[in-house]
Amino acid sequence: MGSIKDIIQAYNSVVKDIDKDAHRQDSRAYGGVIRSAKGKLLENISEEIVKIAWQNIGAKANRLEINSNKIKIPIKDSYIENIANKQVRAYILECKKDYYYGLSVDKHIFVDNQLVMGIECKAYTENAMLKRILVDFHLLKTLYPNISCYLFQLESQLGGDYSALPETL
After folding, report:
1. pTM of the entire structure?
2. At what angle do helices 4-24 and 30-56 cross, to 10 degrees?
3. pLDDT tens digit string along 41-70?
4. Strands of 51-113, DSSP E
5. For the stretch 131-163, what's the b/e string if a residue is b when 16 or more beta carbons lie within 10 angstroms of its beta carbon?
6. SS3 for 6-36, per residue?
């Protein structure tokens, strides 16, 4: 992919053949095959959109990095301070570097080695997924408070119309 037209063609190709592929798979549930294929497609599309936008602003390709590597979210000092058992608290303080949450969203966007954006891709989104996504983004913002966070979704099971921004934020 390298253009919006390429993205549209890839989408149409995958969606057109997805039903046939899902029916042919005996080892996996039909819905799982569809979600998996659409999920991979969305991850590819989101990455290509970022690359196209980057190219359109005339930026150098070597300044941009996109990955899904785990980011270590360390245990908060305030949590450790509130541990009642002194032995446990001392042990965790001694081994603090070993206590972290390995977090990743689908796409981490780095510019000049600085994380600037996180993108979570979902074939469909419902309330429980949205809550988990918000928690993941909140945790990312504890280390990178200035990043932008986006949900890139194909279908929504959420109520309401979220297509327009409100007058005031």
Report:
1. 0.80
2. 170
3. 899 999 999 999 999 999 999 999 999 999
4. 64-67, 71-74, 100-103, 107-111
5. eebeebbeebeeebeebebbbbbbebeeeeeee
6. HHHHHHHHHHHHHHHHHHHCCCCCHHHHHHH
